């Protein structure tokens, strides 16, 4: 069963997909979001779901360090609810605290330039979110 992982931001949505066995996550793309209108990404997400035969979605939930949910987290929950309704699929929220920081560290350790990091950071964060979810299922 393939799972799609999403790192939902105000300007972009990082997308990762699992292998068919549900063991590993691979980054596939970053979807641009105009003016925080994440709903415009749904047609592209539908294409990816069909292309990769995805059966479930995991959406990163950015919690505050004390575990509370702030405005960004609330926006992600709203988007996850919209995905459930529009796509008629199982959507799981996954705590993504520090996923972008971890992705940044991985890219820095790989000596990726600042310009290239900016282009792939959201996709890498989606990989971190999805891999955390997949590891929890093992």
From TrEMBL:
GO BP terms: rRNA 5'-end processing
Main EC class the enzyme belongs to: hydrolase
EC number of the protein: 3.1.-.-
Entries under Pfam families matching the protein: RuvX
A single GO cellular-component term on record: cytosol
Cellular compartment(s): Cytoplasm
Protein's UniProt keywords contain Membrane: no
InterPro entries: RNaseH-like_sf (IPR012337), YqgF (IPR005227), YqgF/RNaseH-like_dom (IPR006641), YqgF/RNaseH-like_dom_sf (IPR037027)
Gene Ontology MF, one: hydrolase activity, acting on ester bonds
NCBIfam families: RNAse_H_YqgF (TIGR00250)
Function as written in the Swiss-Prot or TrEMBL entry: Could be a nuclease involved in processing of the 5'-end of pre-16S rRNA.
Family, as annotated: Belongs to the YqgF HJR family.
Protein name: Putative pre-16S rRNA nuclease
């Amino acid at each position: 069963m393939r799972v799609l992982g999403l790192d939902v931001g105000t300007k972009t949505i990082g997308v990762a997909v699992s292998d068919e066995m549900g063991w590993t996550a691979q980054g596939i793309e970053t979807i641009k979001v105009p003016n925080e209108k994440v709903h415009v990404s749904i047609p592209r997400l539908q294409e990816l779901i069909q292309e990769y035969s995805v059966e479930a979605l995991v959406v990163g939930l950015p919690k505050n360090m004390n575990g509370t949910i702030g405005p960004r987290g609330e926006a992600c929950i709203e988007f996850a609810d919209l995905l459930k309704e529009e796509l008629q699929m199982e959507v799981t929220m996954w705590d993504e605290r520090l996923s972008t920081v971890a992705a940044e560290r991985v890219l820095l350790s790989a000596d990726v330039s600042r310009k290239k990091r900016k282009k792939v950071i959201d996709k890498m964060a989606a990989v971190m979110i999805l891999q955390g979810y997949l590891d929890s299922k093992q």
